[in-house]
Every structure is written in structure tokens, then in C-alpha cells.
Design a protein that fits this description.
Elements lengths: L1 H19 L28 E7 L2 E2 L11 E5 L2 E5 L4 E8 L5 E8 L6 H14 L4 E5 L2 E6 L2 E8 L2
Antiparallel strand pairs: 1-2, 1-3, 1-9, 3-4, 4-5, 5-6, 7-8, 8-9
């Protein structure tokens, strides 16, 4: 009888220990690929065409061909693009990692629909207050005192 109870105790202890052993999830079983793909690096600030996706927390949608995309391109201290109604150009300064300022904005003077003119006026005024930037994946955020005022998406 003592042998039976000892055997039963050993079997119970073995089952308990085996049940507590860690086994990898099925997705990490031997031979299964592990999804550990590194994030795609952000495009460079300079030379990339950036399309406005969000302004002051609101999505920006355009209806081609009547409305052109609102874009911005940085190149050797100069900035250019389309501001909603007109072509724009100006200067920018950056430390290459987080600060960004705009100056000397100019643009063509074409008449457009009121909504496009309003967007352009608000955007240009807001760009004049930008003092920083950061990347969020493939997107560029223009910041005023750390708060995003515009979100651009890399086009190419």
C-alpha cells in the first residue's frame, strides 16, 4: 500500500511540474516565423514631397482635379509647395533633428474658392508659428511648442 501511495504522489508531482513548464505559443513553435520586422525608417525631411493630411487636428481632404493636394518640400534652406490655392515658397531653418522655423513666405496670387483660400491663409499663418518637428512613422508633424499643428504624409 505504501508503494502505491508513493507512486501516486510521484506521478502527481511529475504531472504538476510538467504542466508548469513553459512552452512557446504555436506562432513561435520551432520553424514558425517570428513577426519581428523592424519599423520602416522615416523618410528624410529634405527632398521628400510631403502632402498635408491633418491641420489643427482636422483631416484635410482634397477633391482632384478641382483641388490640388497641399504639399511642402524642403531643399537646402528653401521650402516650396502648394498651399491650398497658390504655389508657395520661402525659407526654413533647422538643427537637423527637432527645431524648425519658417520665414520669408511668398506665393502666387491666384483667386480660388473661399474654402481653399481660407485653408491657405490659416495654413500660412500657422506655418509662421512652427518651431519644431518630429516624425511619426512615415509622417511629418510640424509642431508649435510641442503640439502638432500639421501632419504631412510622405508622397515620394
Amino acid at each position: 500500500m505504501l508503494t502505491f501511495s508513493r507512486t501516486l504522489s510521484l506521478l502527481a508531482a511529475t504531472a504538476l511540474i510538467a504542466g508548469c513548464a513553459q512552452t512557446p505559443p504555436a506562432s513561435q513553435a520551432a520553424g514558425a516565423p517570428v513577426a519581428n520586422t523592424p519599423a520602416k525608417p522615416a523618410p528624410p525631411l529634405v527632398g521628400t514631397i510631403w502632402k498635408l493630411k491633418q491641420f489643427n487636428g482636422q483631416p484635410v481632404t482634397r477633391t482632384p482635379p478641382r483641388q490640388r493636394d497641399v504639399t511642402i518640400v524642403f531643399n537646402d534652406g528653401r521650402v516650396s509647395g502648394h498651399s491650398g490655392c497658390n504655389q508657395m515658397m520661402g525659407a526654413y531653418g533647422t538643427n537637423g533633428s527637432s527645431t524648425l522655423t519658417f520665414s520669408q513666405f511668398a506665393g502666387t496670387m491666384m483667386a480660388c474658392e473661399k474654402a481653399d483660400m481660407d485653408l491657405e491663409n490659416q495654413l500660412l499663418k500657422s506655418l509662421g508659428t512652427v518651431n519644431g518637428y518630429r516624425f511619426d512613422g512615415q509622417q511629418l508633424l510640424l509642431l508649435k511648442d510641442g503640439v502638432a499643428v500639421a501632419r504631412y504624409e510622405a508622397v515620394k
